[in-house]
Amino acid sequence: MALTDEAISKIKTMILDGRLKPGDRLPREADLAEQLGISRGSLREAVRALSMIRILDVRRGDGTYVTSLEPELLLETLTFVIDFHQDSDVLDLFEVRRALEPMAAEKAARLMPADEAAELLTLVDSVRADDPVEAWVANDIEFHHRIALAADNSVLCLLADSVAARTHQARVWRGVTQEDSFEQTRREHRAIALAISERQPSVAAACALTHVAGIEGWLRRSLGGAES
Description:
Layout: H1 3-16, H2 29-36, H3 40-52, E1 56-59, E2 63-66, H4 71-74, H5 76-83, H6 90-111, H7 114-124, H8 133-150, H9 154-165, H10 168-177, H11 181-197, H12 201-227
Antiparallel strand pairs: 1-2
Helix pairs in contact: 1-3, 2-3, 6-8, 6-9, 6-11, 6-12, 7-11, 8-9, 8-10, 11-12
């Protein structure tokens, strides 16, 4: 194991076993290096790496602290990477959506309050076929965001929102090029919303899977046609 990796592992262990808690200030560099049995140079590199992924917060003139370790903070690095996915990687993103969104719909069917479930159905019918495609897409994104939020899992919600945002162009493209895309999307959204409002977790998950898989299948066919 490289010396820097060893230093990272030892700091991680201190956090996991409770010797360092969220918000704690790390001991002085010389003291911590001696305590961990590593060089100050290796410790410095480890601190730099852990600060980049938001585990540690280096405050000039003050010291180095453990961050809050909240999921939203720690996942910022991952969502940053997702933002750099190119359009050619959109199928990978839809595969992730296919894994995440049935889980979110299933949990929403168990947890979403009745009034929010009713509002979800209203949202489905709040756009019309003659509205601009951008309005359809905004409605689509809001629909899936509400479901992810209702799942009551901040990590799931953050990942679902981040992946959904990066499929925006594919949604617009489908709206422009597929003749029945609006009615099909609304029909599938209504099925998901009804399953959630009727407290049918398995049905909600199945409807969400069918919905995302259908878009993914259309996209695969479209990209295949574009490449031939």
